[in-house]
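Researcher: Here's a chain I'd like modeled. Treat it as a single chain, no partners, no ligands.
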Amino acid sequence: MSMQLTPDQERRVQSFVDSGLYTSAQDVVDAALAAVEQATRTFEGTREELEELLLDGLDSGEPIAADETFWNRLRAETDRMVAEHQVRKPRP
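Model: Modeled as a single isolated chain. Structure tokens:
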């Protein structure tokens, strides 16, 4: 399949490559397709199972405010993931 990107789409793809997050336009397209696949995935259970899970979540109690420890762990984990990604896909 061949397709033509608009100038804005080309600029957006290139900005990801230029930022170092991806090493090529192909990598950007692959990541975009993976995101679309994830976003369009549907629940494979029955409607009743989904409703039960949703009710369980609603009945699980008051939300817990995230403390500084949570954000520090989250920041460390995302930093680790970025570092792994950059090691796997070194910049040219």
